[in-house]
Fold each of these.
Amino acid sequence: MYPSSNHASFATDRILLTRITGPESSRAQQLHEVGVLRRLDRGTSDRPNSAHLAAARDQVDTAAAFAIEAAGSGDLLGVSGFGTIDRHEKRATFAPIWSIGRLDEAVLVSHVAHLMTRYAFEVLVVERAEVHLDWRLRHMLDLYTNLGFRCEGRLRAYFAADEEPSADAAVLSVVRSEWPSVVRRQRGVLAGEIVALPASIRPPSIAAAKLG
């Protein structure tokens, strides 16, 4: 269930994910020196950038961390990974995607989410891969649902904030029985062959799902 050293990287034509194997790795050192880092799964945070980076390293190191690199040039674009890998339940939860702003957000998320999902089902051999997104980020929910993730519901006060009210989270997942069709859809999205979001998989609107 845990990542093998034989699967140190996964790639598309735009993005390469490379395992960060320890605190002394060159990529780990570069991440510590990054001046701009933005978490893409939630709204603006009031925490300072140094705390952002510390939180990113803490979260992705809990299971498996990946440097996000530009295919070809090898330029560092960000970091992501798995927040948890449950080998008994065969379930993997994605850690946040952190970007240093060198690539369009939609392109980065689409390619990284595809590679992370592939890694979950093809390397970790899980039955379920899931991600938690800030409920207010409708564009981000649309990106993931367009990649075949199914929105299952809403978790109240999931993302804590230092001063502002905590944010609710949308829970999205892909399960193994869906994976053959989902991977075909994802490849079509990345190739530009699929651009429309089917109404059947669009997450409920904020108004329709607002909690009382």
Note: The longest helix spans residues 105-123.
Amino acid sequence: MRFKLTLPVAALLAISGVAAAQDQAAGGWRAMSYYNFQIPSTTDPLQTLVWPDVIREANAYVTTELKRSLGGKNALVTALASTYRDGSRTVIVSTALTRACDSGANDKGAEIEPSTCPLRIVTIENGKVTSIKSDTGCYTDHADPDLPAKNRNDSSYTRYDPIAGTISFRTTIGGRDVPSCARVYSLK
């Protein structure tokens, strides 16, 4: 999928998450940050550029199918995201926990495992969205003190390689890498 949208660079850089992004050389793994979209935002690029359709679908499901009022909030949609700046280019990689995820076993004897969820990579150059790529990626619960001790540091990680033009993705559960979650996405 390919889009051309204009978004002022100043507005992008003022947004938390993007403003915190640093120029990256091919480097180490970075834990993805957790985001909750229940509070609507017109300036958050994750809500306005990356996941607006998913938020709309979740809101419609709650109001139409479940017949519940959202009271001005969004339905519960959460995401993990990493943002990288490389000169005039910004790359956002994000996976969202939605009803479309394959969440695996769900009984009291099951081990914690990642969900396979929609993943999107958005590339913004000179204030314009130049591409949005869709795939799947692993989603893990963010640090939660209610998780078993061995799972309190579970996380998904990304690494940006500007020379190769790739984003690498991996997930750890219980202190071990999950081989099925290891992926490399081309930005080209």
Note: DSSP finds three helices and eleven strands in the chain.
